[in-house]
Design goal:
This protein is α/β, with parallel strands linked by helices. It folds into two domains: 115 residues, no CATH class; 302 residues, Alkaline Phosphatase, subunit A, CATH 3.40.720. The chain has an eight-stranded mixed β-sheet with strand order 4-14-5-13-12-3-9-6, sandwiched between helices. It has a two-stranded antiparallel ribbon with strand order 1-2.
């Protein structure tokens, strides 16, 4: 490790007019941490990538336990990263089942996914439970600029298929600050960008259009600070800084392209400003910014709702004009099952691209992926039967050399998903004895 002649504080920023850019984890920050008596390692992050409408489980399940080798169809895009993922079997969300009044299967599976509590069905009494990501955020969120970030790609009210107030509340939100207060995800890439790097002022589409006519890169506003900092850094840190700032510049380029493309079409509906029409482009733009947020330690907790639960979105870009949700009720018809499998695989290809990005970023003695726990999964297993047991679940990353990855681990049937959450809480430094329907920690996940 190169120790440069300048010691940097971890919370060093590049500042400009209306702009604050946090720095990534640099080698020159390690001595400062050591002198302060804090840990030398990079922080551990966690994120949740939620897929709607369940999975074609025949394409998810491998027919073995132990070290990963031949991955099944849905997981195949992760083949280059099979040593970095852990596939978990038999995790169940009992709260997603129709035990009480509930809000329908899609409302229950999404509303209970991170809360472990069955949501109520009521137009006047929307109630789930505080989600476990927010329990962690309440404990460690003061260490970062944002206690947590909630991100998504689709809102049912814009898609036109939201049937009621309570249904929208549960199917549109993963994170819940309290039993009655969901945290809506940010859908608009420009809004997320301005939240991360701007002054926090929310602009109307008209104001954004005016601003766009004379917009400069945010990096132009911090040129002076950047040049001063670069003179004090060693070659490795200069390379890291250049790669980091280049990634911000690339996000700006993608935003400008999306906004230009959107100005050429009339969708005949209210749509967030700057949202790309192409799903893959939208996914990449949001995850690129999520990467920057983790890299700069702007937050250590994120949720990502990959289209809302129960969505009838079509995927014409891969030749599927049918709605996703109706397809999952395939009634065992092979042609419909095949389309569901293609959608599942398409989603996974986008996720694999994000995993590749996280793995490419060096951080301390490892990578940004090594220091993360990215849970990818769904609140339903088979979407045709609406099953809530043996949910498709994998973790990308090692959580700071904690998770023994590269394996498929199958637990006893009906093992609560909340056991995984308790284990992740421990790794994030937040300790509690019980959450949801947990029965204990998830054994066999760590390196011990």
């Amino acid at each position: 490790m190169i120790i440069t002649r300048k010691v940097l504080a971890r919370r060093t920023f590049l500042r400009g007019i209306g702009t604050t850019i946090a720095l990534p984890f640099l080698d020159s920050m390690v001595p400062a941490m050591a002198l302060a008596g804090t840990a030398k390692k990079a922080p551990v992050r966690m994120a949740f990538v939620y897929l709607p409408n369940g999975m074609d489980m025949t394409g998810w399940h491998a027919n073995y336990e132990g070290p990963l080798h031949d991955l099944p169809r849905t997981l195949k895009p992760l083949e280059p990263f099979k040593d970095d993922i852990t596939v978990l079997g038999n995790l169940t969300h009992n709260a997603g089942r129709a035990l009480l009044d509930g809000a329908g299967d899609h409302g229950r599976c999404c509303g209970s996914y991170l809360t472990g509590v069955q949501p109520r069905k009521s137009l006047v009494d929307i109630k789930a439970g505080i989600s476990f990501d927010q329990i962690v955020a309440n404990q460690i969120g003061n260490q970062t600029r944002f206690a947590s970030l909630e991100i998504g790609l689709e809102d049912a009210r814009q898609a036109g298929d939201c049937d009621s107030g309570y249904s929208c509340a549960y199917t549109n939100n993963l994170a819940w600050r309290s039993e009655t207060q969901p945290l809506p995800p940010v859908l608009d890439p420009r809004a997320l960008f301005e939240r991360l790097f701007g002054n926090g002022v929310v602009l109307s589409p008209e104001a954004r259009a005016r601003q766009g006519r004379y917009r400069r890169s945010i990096l132009d506003f911090v040129t002076s600070d950047t040049q001063k900092l670069e003179t004090s850094l060693g070659p490795t840190d200069r390379r890291k800084l250049d790669e980091y700032l280049s990634s911000i510049r690339e996000v700006e380029r993608q935003l400008e392209k999306a906004e230009k493309d959107n100005s050429q079409i009339d969708p005949h509906m209210e749509k967030p400003y700057g949202v790309p029409a192409d799903f893959a482009e939208h996914f990449k733009l949001m995850t690129d910014m999520m990467t920057i947020a983790f890299q700069a330690d702007l937050t250590r907790i994120m949720t990502f709702l990959v289209t809302r639960e129960g969505t009838s979105r079509s995927y014409r870009e891969i030749g599927i004009p049918d709605g996703h949700h109706p397809l999952t009720h395939h009634r065992n018809m092979p042609d419909l099952i095949e389309k569901v499998a293609q959608i599942n695989n398409y989603h996974m290809k986008q996720f694999a691209g994000w995993v590749e990005k996280l793995k490419s970023i060096k951080e301390g003695d490892g990578t940004l992926l090594d220091n993360s726990m990215i849970v990818y999964g769904a609140g339903l297993a088979d979407g045709n039967k609406h099953l809530h047991e043996d949910l498709p679940t994998l973790i990308a990353g090692r959580g700071g050399n904690f998770i023994k990855s590269g394996r498929r681990v199958v637990y006893r049937k009906e093992t609560p998903m909340c056991n995984l959450f308790l284990t992740m809480m421990d790794r994030m430094g937040v300790h509690t004895e019980h959450f949801g329907d947990s029965t204990g920690r998830l054994e066999g996940l760590d390196l011990t």
